[in-house]
Amino acid sequence: MAELNGTNSNDTLVGTAGDDTLSGGNGNDLLRPGSGNNEIDGGAGIDTMAGLGDFSDYTVYRQSTTSVFFSSYKHLTLYSVSNVEYFAFADGVHTLAELVGIAGTARNDMLNGTAGNDTLDGAAGNDTMRGGSGNDEYHVDSSGDVVQESANGGTDRIYSSASYYKMPANVEGLSFSASGAFTAIGNALDNGISTGDGNDYVDGGAGNDSFYTGYGDDTMFGGAGNDGISASSGDDLFDGGAGTDSVYMMAARENYIVRRAGENGLAFTYIGEGAGDGGRTLTVYDVENFYMYGVLHTLAEFQAELPPDGSDSIDGTDGNDTLDGYDGIDTLTGGAGDDTYVVRRTGTLVVENDGEGIDTAKIAYAGAAWHLADFVENGVALAGKLAVAIDGNALDNVLTGNDGNNTLTGNAGNDTLIGGNGSDVLAGGSGDDTYHVDVAGDKVVELANAGKDTVITALAKYALAANVENVKYTGSAAFAGTGNALDNVIDGGDATTSQAIDGAAGSDTYVAAGAYADYQRQLSAANDLVLVKGTQSITLKNIEQVEFSDGVKSLAELTLNVASARNDTLTGTDGNDTLDGLAGADSLLGGDGNDTLVGGKGNDTLDGGAGNDVYSIDAAGDKVLEAADGGYDIVETTVAKITLAANVEELRFTGKVAFTGIGNDLDNVIAGSTGNDKLTGGLGADGFVLGAGNDTITDFASGVDHLVVTRKVGNGDDVIDDAAIQGVTGGFASDAELVIFSQKVASLTTTSAAKAIGSAAEAYATGETALFALHTASTTAVYLFTSKGNDAVVSANELVQIATLTGVVTTGIDDYGFATLS
């Protein structure tokens, strides 16, 4: 590795075989790097890089308008070059502008080639590439890339990684440089087009075209001109079009079964030279010449030797063969392996033996039904809209339709019938059959007592045909499924949309996607069970049981204590129950345990029984029944005025309006909300929890009741720090979280309160809070102070009244508490 630096003169720098750095400096320098990874900077002056191989040995990438990067596998070199004006390749000199013109970036580039044989690669972006004269190579990776080639500008080729490419004018060659299927459209020249290993489509257009395809099942159209293809693997189709067309590189004649494929058409099925070699078929139309292992055979020759009506007798191999007799009434014998028979006419005979693979017959004609030959498992209607009819045999058949109106009859065995997109008639016969119903026009015909049968469908609405037991939904939209007179199993599938299921007669089962605990249970207005999971609602009518992923529940179990819009009676257990009455005038009986009773709409009666119960009240007519010493009980309500029922300890308002709450004879806790609430404790030692407004306590008894402040005061904990009773204005400690003024004030406005409070002994920091209590001759007011400046003065605009205690002329420190309501 060497680092070579030039001077201000015209220098010559020669690199080594290692990774070098060459810096020319000022002057017109000659730079000759060696092999390896080299960094070259010509510096100022007119510099030349020499010692390079042929221009076509390198791939060039543009870094900027003054720098390029190029590599060569042949010479095992990588060059990063800047500020060099000329490049002396072995076959000619190119300028920096020329190299920059043919190398792309990640942007949308304009690349211009030279008069030589250029390689233009725009890299990412939608690039425009102009090769100029010479035999140029273009790399296209986007449908937005544009290749512009001049007429008679050499023999040019495009390498495309896009899955579809239409050749521009004046370019002769096209190669696919990615994987997967490729569609290639030629131009008016003599094109050479090569694809990959996907199932490709090639249309050569005019000109004498040559196609080279890979291992996929390819379709090729030669168009006008004398076109040719090279035989390859896969089931290929080649339509030569006008002109004298040829197939090259075929195996010897004895390796093929040759059959007619319509007028001027032939099918070559390769049977190989040993077991497992054969099976692929090349079908050609309007192709005149066939080069088979060096020997030329012609279309006329094959037409002369084949039966004129196309009736063939074709024997397969021990491999997986595809046998297609094309025209005529054929005899097709598959032998061992998983064979495919293409049946194009009624009367075609398929010969298959027991135990010789899983075999398929593809039916390619409409009209009379084709009966599956013995030992053939599957029948398929060839793609299209032919009205194909297929009869099964005694095996477990899979019969598949196409886009036409098919008739598929399974007969004996456990058959699977797949109708396809047409309006099909599906008749399973005896056995446990499966029907795939794809369109509303499909008709299922099933015999009575002929097995356990299942319909699989993605239709949004489906009613089971007679004598079919089960249906499974596989769609994602809302589903309406209806059973029949049998004992049905209706499977809702994995859909998360709503479903409406009617089992009809019989003892029916619905299959749910989740576990029992995943669902909430309700009753509809029609008294039907409704399962709710997130946004999904499943209404079950005439369903006797539900199968969850973790077990089966009967209808009686599922409807026990399930509310509806009617007047329900819900009874809890000895455990901790949650009962929700929904609409209607309901009766909820919690029983033992810590129960939660939600009345819902309507005037409900709620009896929690023993235990610590929570009652949710949302109607003024709701009635709570609680026994004495029946636990610590709480009422939560949105009703604007309520009196706490006997034997209930706590009342919480959860609404947003002003609230009037009245306690009972017990030691109550009464909590307001965001409004200016009016709270009355009644008898007992009561705790009043202040909300966000200015709450009025009508019967506060100092020394007996407690005022609970839930807002942040001082350091925010539940301890009242440094509380004080102040007999004069001002002079109190700023860290006192509660200050009670014992002297009377004339008015409880914030202005009067601020004047009576005065200033603390020390300054408050901005945002610090404290409570102040002041008294008139008949009322006590509590203020929350929030400092708005770094000073000791308590101003009116820093005070918010949070409680008014009517009839109270003095309070003590023990009357107050800090807490958070849980």
Topology:
Blueprint: E1 3-5, E2 12-14, E3 21-23, E4 30-32, E5 36-41, E6 48-49, E7 59-64, E8 67-72, E9 77-82, E10 86-89, E11 92-95, H1 96-102, E12 110-112, E13 119-121, E14 128-130, E15 137-140, E16 146-148, E17 157-160, E18 164-166, E19 173-176, E20 183-185, E21 192-194, E22 201-203, E23 210-212, E24 219-221, E25 228-230, E26 236-239, E27 246-250, E28 256-260, E29 265-270, E30 281-285, E31 289-292, E32 295-298, H2 299-305, E33 313-315, E34 322-324, E35 331-333, E36 340-343, E37 349-351, E38 360-363, E39 370-371, E40 378-381, E41 389-391, E42 398-400, E43 407-409, E44 416-418, E45 425-427, E46 434-437, E47 443-445, E48 454-457, E49 461-463, E50 470-473, E51 479-482, E52 489-491, E53 499-502, E54 509-511, E55 520-523, E56 529-533, E57 536-541, E58 545-548, E59 551-554, H3 555-559, E60 569-571, E61 578-580, E62 587-589, E63 596-598, E64 605-607, E65 614-617, E66 623-625, E67 634-637, E68 641-643, E69 650-653, E70 660-662, E71 669-671, E72 678-680, E73 687-690, E74 695-697, E75 706-709, E76 724-726, E77 738-744, ...
Parallel strand pairs: 1-3, 2-4, 3-5, 4-6, 5-9, 6-10, 12-14, 13-15, 14-16, 15-17, 17-19, 18-20, 19-21, 20-22, 21-23, 22-24, 23-25, 24-26, 25-27, 26-30, 27-31, 33-35, 34-36, 35-37, 36-38, 38-40, 39-41, 40-42, 41-43, 42-44, 43-45, 44-46, 45-47, 46-48, 48-50, 49-51, 50-52, 51-53, 52-54, 53-57, ...
Antiparallel strand pairs: 7-8, 8-9, 10-11, 28-29, 29-30, 31-32, 55-56, 56-57, 58-59, 78-81, 79-80, 80-82
Q: Could you explain the architecture of this structure?
A:
This is Calcium-binding protein. This protein has 822 residues and is mainly beta. Among the domains are: 3-238, no CATH class; 461-560, no CATH class; 724-818, no CATH class. Helices cover 3% and strands 39% of the residues. Strand 55 (520-523) and strand 56 form a beta hairpin. The radius of gyration is 46 Å and the shape is flat. The protein starts with a strand and ends with a strand. The model has no long low-confidence stretch (mean pLDDT 91).
